[in-house]
Q: What sequence folds into this?
């Protein structure tokens, strides 16, 4: 009986030691994701029709303009207003969104930044909710849809 117990304990210890050494010797899997502004915040399907909804959730007037539309002046977005852009742009699309010249007086002179919260629904509609954040919080001014459908904000 003692012999069976000794064999069982020896076998169990050998298996445990072998498994432990095998796990220690394995390399961890490579992690390619590195967080940062270079990572897309969302994606669209470029082969389907797409639309961009700009939602001004601030209490100040904003202006938006595509960097490629030199003949069109910046367009206004009033506080709490939503603007939908369809078929008015080609990819890559760079959209600048900034406070209008009236914004400094509308906000009482308090410094602030803008932040873009991006979401894409099943209908390929990109919703960009624009909110005001404290001036100590990093903000956004540019919304970009790449040719591949990757969406970046910076």
A:
């Amino acid at each position: 009986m003692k012999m069976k117990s000794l064999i069982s304990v020896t076998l169990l210890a050998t298996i445990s030691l072998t498994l432990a050494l095998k796990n220690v010797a394995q390399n961890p899997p490579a992690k390619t994701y590195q967080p940062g502004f270079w990572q897309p915040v969302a994606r669209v399907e470029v082969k389907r029709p797409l639309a961009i909804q700009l939602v001004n959730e601030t209490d100040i007037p904003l202006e938006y303009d595509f960097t490629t539309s030199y003949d069109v002046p910046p367009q206004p977005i009033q506080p709490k207003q939503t603007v939908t852009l369809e078929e008015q742009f080609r990819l890559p699309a760079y959209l600048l969104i900034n406070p209008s010249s009236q914004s400094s007086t509308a906000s009482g002179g308090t410094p602030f930044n803008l932040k873009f919260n991006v979401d894409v629904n099943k209908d390929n509609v990109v919703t960009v909710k624009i909110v005001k954040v404290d001036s100590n919080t990093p903000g956004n001014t540019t919304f970009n849809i790449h040719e591949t459908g990757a969406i970046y904000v910076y």
Observations:
- The longest strand covers residues 125-134.
- Residues 42-153 form a domain with the Immunoglobulin-like fold (CATH 2.60.40).
- The two ends are 73 Å apart (CA to CA).
- Residues 21-26 have pLDDT under 50 and may be disordered.
